[in-house]
Amino acid sequence: MAQVRQTKTEQRIREALVSLLAERGFDSITVSDLTRRAGIHRGTFYAHYVDKYDLLERQINAVYRNLADILEGDAEKPGNSAGEMDAGSRDFIPYGRVLGALSYIRENYPLIAALTANGTDQRLYERAKQLLGGLVERGAALAGTKLDFGGVPETYGREMMLAGVTSVIWLWIKNGCPEEPRVIANIIWKNKSRSLEECVLS
Predict the structure, then answer these.
(1) Which own/partner pairs from 46-55 qualify as long-range (CB within 8 Å, at least 24 positions apart)?
(2) Distance in angstroms (rounded) separating the CA atoms of residues 45 and 24
(3) Which distant-in-sequence residues (6+ apart) come within 8 Å of 49 by Cβ?
(4) How far apart are CA 107 and CA 78, in angstroms?
(5) pLDDT at 88 over 50
(6) CA 156, CA 57: separation in Å to the nearest integer?
(7) Residue 200, φ and ψ in degrees, nearest 5
(8) Could you give the CA distance from residue 133 to residue 164 in angstroms, rounded to a whole number?
(9) Which of 7, 8, 33, 51 is deepest in the core (most CB within 10 A)?
């Protein structure tokens, strides 16, 4: 019962944060604002969070963990595409998992829009890009292949590949996620400036 109460309290605080972030910048929000909006006492807030910065960071971490869980899936299996891609393609970030991550973003758009300042805050962006990079590298290692960037130094080639994918997702967030997740997943896979397949050496 205590756990249920704690979960409900944290949900009310999170909803208060989301609604306040939609109205004003984070810097202008106070703990008093949060407790009034959530309908709780300050002591209750401090029983859960150190301060408003701790609250924000923990919400960002939770979203990141959820996205990581969806994208990583079974880390030992490269996975299958949705059948819409070329049969011979090597999807080191499986299409179905990306579609799942996009669906999660759209379903939780008010929270993610608030945490990213409608896609302008780069903290989640950079962490998402790092997550995608790790998945590509693990997938290539599991498949026994090596990434190559056609003569472009690895630092820059890797950035071009990952920034292209991540920027499409963040533009979608900035626009309010109007398209269905499957549309964005197809855009990513069909229009990458440099496809993963081009970066693979057997």
Answers:
(1) 48/6, 48/9, 48/10, 48/13, 49/13, 52/26, 55/13, 55/17
(2) 20
(3) 13, 55, 58
(4) 26
(5) no
(6) 29
(7) -110, 135
(8) 12
(9) 33
